[in-house]
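Q: A reviewer asked whether we had any structural model of the full assembly, not just the individual parts. We don't, so I'm hoping you can provide one. Inputs are below.
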Amino acid sequence: MINEVVLGGGSRKKIIIGGERSLPLHASLPEKNLPVISHDVFDMPIHLPSQVRECFGEAMNDPAEWAHLSVKRYKADMITLHMVSTDPKGANVSVPDALKKIEDVLQAVKVPLIIGGSGNPDRDPELLEKAAEICSGERVLLSSVDGSMNYKRVVAAAKKHGHAVLSLIPQNLGEMGRFNKALMRLGLTKNDIVMDLFTGGVGYGLEYSISAMERARLQGLAGDEGLAFPIASAPSNAWSAREAWMKKDEWGPREMRGPLWEAATAQATLLSGADLFMMLHPLAIDSLKKTIRGINKG
Amino acid sequence: MRATALEVYETIKGSGYSIDSALELSEGMKKIEDFPKLSLEQRKQLDKLLSPAVKEVAIGPKKSSVSVGGDEVLYRHELRFMNKTAVFIGIDDSMSPAEVRKRIAFVSDFFAERIGQELRLDGIAIRFSSGAPDRFKRTIESVINGFKGPIIISAPRLKDIEPIIPLMKNMRPLINLEKEDAEKASDLAEKHILSLVLRSDDPKILADRSGKLERKGFDRIVFDASAGGIRKTILNHTSIRELAVIGKKDYGYPLISFLDEKTPYEESLYACILISRYSGILVLNTIEPFALLPVLTLRQGIYSDPRIQPRVAPGIYKVGEPTKDAPLLLTSNFALTYHSVLGDLEKGKVSCFILALDTEGLAVTVSLAADKMTAKAVKDALERYNANHLVSHKKLIIPGFASRLAEGISEETGWQVLVGPNDSSALPDYLKKY
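A: Here is a predicted structure for the entire assembly that you could use as a starting point for your response.
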């Protein structure tokens, strides 16, 4: 069986992911825990396609407001807060200032959270360590760790404050398995790790993601302890495909194309075993929810 | 499961073909026809040995047919998915003649190019719903006149099909009876080389029926195992493929799905699910490009060979409308890397040149580790692709990950080397300061 990971609790809703015994619909057993979608929120205005910006408007200037809108209007079950402003090569917002924004989001919504760094391996350990402290008791998912950073700091903080950790190793099962085992040797339990093998959009390497996920899930089910974790997938990556955002008449309206591209990407990784989705467009999210209901009922 | 290369080699020994040929045959990279020196007896044996778990069925006129099925595995990483899902567009005989003409032209003309491959539609599925046999006949005639590819014919009963068979000489259509068992048409199908759709929401019943037909010598069969709703349909598809792969021959036929969703958007999403889960033929109603594009793009990816690192031809590519002062950027010729870089530059509306170095399809970081991206290789590539004719400057921007090559490239080529960002998403901003 795939390990179960609890997210949330404390002052917020609790969600459980994982627990599968097969790949979706390879057996008629009902899934124990339905996959969950976490809505992306960025802590500063970043370049996003106009179809996405239109859904959130002014709220995009304030992560707490954005998160609130996502829960209230778009019925988000989870929120991913991407602290992109902390990148020292970018806006370089200090960690104490960044923590205030996290604090605001913690107050604004009562759904489980994913706290993401900027992807800067020098700054993220410090940020995630401090974020773990102020989110103590709320069991967030700290996103993400890999071998290029001082992940031990993040793991120690996760252990101390009761959080889960997302390991991100693109499409490399051997390395992913070894890294997850290393995380467990540092004291995380099998119920504290979610793994991300990277999701490329339709036409941009999605098939590698599909095969990596299917192999990981099959190996996990067959008893490989390094890979028996719930799988996170970020179909929002599909927005980097020009088919999703580019204005081009012969491709038809991009208002439809964009969400469709993200939803089609998400559906494919859903069928390959993904448990936790990080997504951007409300219409794409609704479509995936419908598919999740469809494959689990009736 | 398909025979191993050694088993195949045992059969072809003495024909002058090597173990490499045996491997090509066992892995399905080449077909028996590709080896003319084989004896008749060897061909027969190979045919048996190599018959795939899912039977391969060809639909359409010999010169422009589409093959479906031929699969061996449950997951693409185990080998590859074979014949890509054939996408048919529906034409209903209740449609206006203008709409019929529009759809015929759409299917014939639809074309998109991705990573050097053509994305096209495969055929037309004509459905008799008007209740007027003359109208049905006229619709078929206009399709046959305007379209030379594979055709599927759907009608309630055998008696609706019989009168139009003479129109379809040598066209080898797939016949779908909506209200009668396909077995009724098996004699007709045998005589006129038609393929037949067997329909049931119960895989066991499909296998019983295909078994009976096969014992009569008829095997041009396609299953419609749709079961109302995505869950049951996909469970059916998956169990049929599972049983076929473990060698239960009666389950080993391609699957067809006739879609009936409310909107093009929903149809597109359902089609994408069916492509991920074993549909060999999709019959779609929509001709909205926005809805077809993800379907055909996903199909291209899922049916690509996972054993081959996809790559672009090495060389210098133009992005936008670069002038001679435009920047020149180095990257690998791993298709995904190249297309990511290209996508990011287009998104940033940048005009420039990309030098896709021959890294044998390896990504930048891997090619650095494997010594495929080296100062010498960059020098050779700049010369081979006439970089100094394309640009008037001597400045090369290299990926951040390759920064350790900066000095070496500079010494080797005499060019000024600028270290760009690690990730191409930062390129547009980087180039603003260029």
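A: Points you may want to mention in the reply: The mean pLDDT of chain B is 93. The longest strand of chain B covers residues 86-92.
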